[in-house]
């Protein structure tokens, strides 16, 4: 199997392509002028709670405070919580992820339902679920991949594992490749959580 990484950098954008056996697998384009913050993870501070809107404003270091709705805040007990006041309070620190860039006078939209992508997996540290891309249609492959993740998690001896979504690129991937992704994502999450 041949694998190539092609990189093209200009003053306006950077492009990276991954090619396996002559077939394009991934393309990433980053433009310097329109670089958004969607997907970025921040440790923010609740600056205002709005009970009437079931929402709060969170300072994540941008010009305007970002907005988070109660439905986007993880509830550790897992039960439905009626009040934003029961979830957060002013001055509280939150680890959040941007779901929508700021536009005009509106701040960014946030969630505490974090997701961290890698090549084969998306890691969700606060969810206990293993899902598989709907584009992987072969039922035997879907079951194999679920078992591979379960075996990798057991082999690592991870107690609070979180959840994973197996991406389309995981189709045909071996246990070693999935294990490398799991280790990478766990290390990344540990670094984020430590801050």
Task: Please provide a written account of the structure.
With 195 residues, this protein is an alpha+beta fold. The chain folds into 3 domains: 1-35, no CATH class; 41-111, OB fold (Dihydrolipoamide Acetyltransferase, E2P), CATH 2.40.50.140; 116-194, Ribosomal Protein S5, domain 2, CATH 3.30.230. Helices cover 22% and strands 34% of the residues. The chain is built from 3 helices and 12 strands. It has helices at 84-87, 139-156, 175-194; strands at residues 3-9, 13-20, 23-31, 41-50, 55-59, 66-69, 93-100, 109-111, 116-117, 121-124, 130-132, 163-166. The strands form 3 sheets. It has a 5-stranded antiparallel sheet with strand order 6-5-4-7-8, with no helix packed on it. A 4-stranded mixed sheet has the order 9-10-12-11, covered by helices on one side. Strands 1-2-3 form a 3-stranded antiparallel sheet, with no helix packed on it. A hairpin with a 3-residue loop joins β1 (3-9) and β2 (13-20). α2 packs across α3 (175-194). It is globular. It starts with a strand and ends with a helix. The model has no long low-confidence stretch (mean pLDDT 89).
